Structures are given as C-alpha cells and as structure tokens.
TrEMBL record:
Top-rank taxon, per record: Bacteria
Alphabetized Pfam families for the sequence: DUF6263
Source taxonomy: Bacteria, Pseudomonadati, Bacteroidota, Flavobacteriia, Flavobacteriales
Bias (Low complexity): 328-348
PROSITE patterns: PROKAR_LIPOPROTEIN
Entry-linked InterPro entries: DUF6263
Protein species of origin: Chryseobacterium paridis
Protein name as it appears in the record: Lipoprotein
Segments for region (Disordered): 324-348
Length: 348
C-alpha cells in the first residue's frame, strides 16, 4: 500500500485597498507547515499564473516548480494497532510504528529536469505488546538488547546517506543513483556482528531487493504525483488499482477525488480498499474458511505553488476472520488492524 516552497497563491483577505497588500498562505519549505504572510496585492495574479497546480478552463493539472537550493521534506510515518481474538474470546493487542525521514535538495534544473540530492536522514521503529515497548531509533544510541543491535546497525548504515535523483517538472522520476556505496556501508556494518559469510550475503541481498532504483522510483512516482496527467476538475473522481499480492489475485483499489484547490493547497480525498473476499476449503466434514477486507479513507494535500506533497493522512482498517467448522460447531480467530499512514505528519 500503498501513498512546498515559498511562493504564495490565493488571498485569504485583502487587508486594505489603500495598503494594496493581501494576506496569503504558503508552505514553509523547512517545516512543511502552512503559514500566512502579507504581500503586495498586485502580485497575486502573477503568482497564480506561475502556480504548479493550476486551473485551465476548469481543469487542474499538476507540475513541479521547485526552487534551486531549497530542501523539501518527505517523512513517512505508519502506526498499526492490531487486535487478535482467539476462539475463547481472549484478545491480544499490539502496536507498531515506523518512521522514515528523508528530504530532497534541489541542486539545479536544466531542460525541465531537476538534479536532486535525496537525503536519507533517519529511521525509527517501535513495537508495543503486553505492556512492553522496544525501540530502534537511528537518532538514539545502539540498543542494549542483542537481537536489536543488528536492526539498528543496518538502519544506521542506511541513513546518513545521499542518493542522486533526476526528475522532470511533470513529476516523472527519470533515475536514482548512488546505491552501491550504501550497500557497501551496510555490508560493513553487518560484518561487525555476523561472521558467517553466507548469512552476511543473505542480509545484503535482502536489502537490495527492497532498496533499489526500481522500488524507490515506483514509490516516489506514486507519492509525489496523484492528479492524472490529463488533469481533473473539482469534484472529479479517478481510480488506481494495484496488486496486493505477488500473484496478482488480490487487487487494492484507491479511489481519488479532487476536493479543492485554493489558499495555497490542493486537497485530494482517498477511499477504497479491498472488497470482502472469502476463501473456503472443505476436507470431509471439516470446512476451513478465511474472509478478509481492507477499507481506506483519508486526504492528501499538495502545495499549490510548488506541487510538492505537504501532508497525507490515510486510515486503513484490515479485518481477517479464520473459521473452522465441522458442520455442527465452529471456531473462529479474528484479526483487526487499524493503521494510520502519514506523510509529513507534523505539517498541518
């Protein structure tokens, strides 16, 4: 499952005709928060014309107008609260959190292509169960627990690194390079804890499968550009469908709607998920069935002036019920996961 700069756009209120100024909103590129400033009123029309997400005959299109030398945040945060209920009605609760902090610094733009440094800043993971919480945070010292040291070392080796990204003004990610030094750094870190060469190679191979150019290009292409290339009207809906499993039998559908554009913000609503599906198998008198369902809802906000994502807040509820029956009596195990999937969670 899948998921800012400093030019202002729309006037909230004219302060005074005599002063010829207007209060407008913009997004602070350092914090990602929306702020209000006062600018000359005659600059509003010019700014609107230069907006990244702008209206043409009622149709809004998304481009990027990033500034050379500016840095744009992209912090992702996910919180999962899982409740499992056994056949006797006993429940077990667990909470996990994951934060990945990164940012994008614009080095240059030539021929409508940005040269960007992707800064991998930090990673934090935590798990809480039965009143106990364990945390692995690259901003904190090495954990004392032996089973957490490996995770911390790998995450620490992954962060404090830089990749180079080429992206055009339409949001197409052309290339991401610089992975090999990161792989080497991780291999060295693993080598301090793992002496077996095969185990060490296995860890690095696993990393390469999840952290490579294709994976990151797909991720950024989905997160950074949501409005269709052809554009969308206010209230218009569109749909994207992706595989939820490797064989493509299960599809997750994301329904989008352009809710509003103005005051420096373009807001998109998100809904959909995976419809309830039940798989049933019988062997003799015994029947084994599994039903599952996923429902998502939320919003994504972009800076109208730069096209950069400022905030995402999507809730995802996954329900799975496993039942075994002999025709006379049955037992069920239920699992419910409530997740929050956010981008730049500190931005409002």
């Amino acid at each position: 499952m899948k998921n800012i700069a400093a030019i202002a756009l729309i006037s909230i209120a004219l302060v005074s005709c005599k002063k010829e100024t207007a209060k407008i909103t913009k997004v602070d590129p350092k914090t990602g928060k929306t702020i209000t400033v006062e600018v000359p009123a005659d600059s509003i029309a010019k700014v609107a014309e230069n907006a990244a997400i702008k209206d043409s005959a009622g149709i809004y299109t998304q481009t990027f107008k990033l500034e050379k030398g500016k840095t744009y945040p992209l912090t992702t945060y996910q919180r999962d609260v899982k409740t499992m209920t056994d056949p006797q009605g006993k429940t077990l609760n667990g909470t996990s959190e994951a934060t990945d902090e990164m940012s994008f610094t614009v080095n240059d733009i030539k021929n409508n292509v940005y040269d960007i440094t992707l800064n991998l800043i930090s990673k934090r993971n935590s798990q809480t169960a039965e009143g106990k919480t364990i945390v692995v945070d690259t901003k904190q010292p090495l954990p004392k627990e032996d089973d957490l040291k490996m995770i911390w070392n790998i995450n620490r080796a992954l962060t404090s690194n830089k990749l180079n990204m080429k992206m055009d003004t339409k949001g197409n990610v052309i290339s991401i390079t610089g992975f090999e030094p990161v792989y080497t750094k991780v291999s060295t870190a693993v080598g301090t804890l793992v002496k077996d060469a095969n185990q060490k190679a296995s860890v690095v191979a696993s990393l390469k499968e999840s952290f490579n150019e294709k994976v990151l290009k797909d991720q950024f292409s989905k997160n950074l550009t949501i409005i269709p290339k052809k554009g969308a009207k206010i209230g218009e809906k569109w749909t994207n469908t992706e595989n939820a499993d490797p064989n493509g039998k299960i599809k997750v559908t994301s329904n989008y709607v352009l809710k509003s554009v103005g005051n420096g913000v373009a807001e998109i609503g998100v809904s959909g998920g995976i419809p309830k599906k039940t798989d049933k198998q019988a062997q003799g008198a015994m029947t084994h069935s599994i039903s599952s369902e996923l429902v998502q809802n939320g919003t994504i906000k972009f800076d109208e002036n730069t096209g950069w994502i400022t905030n995402q807040n999507i809730t995802v509820k996954t329900t799975q019920i496993e039942t075994i029956s002999d025709g006379k009596q049955s037992q069920s195990m239920k699992s419910v996961s409530n997740s929050s999937v956010m981008v730049n969670p500190s931005a409002k």
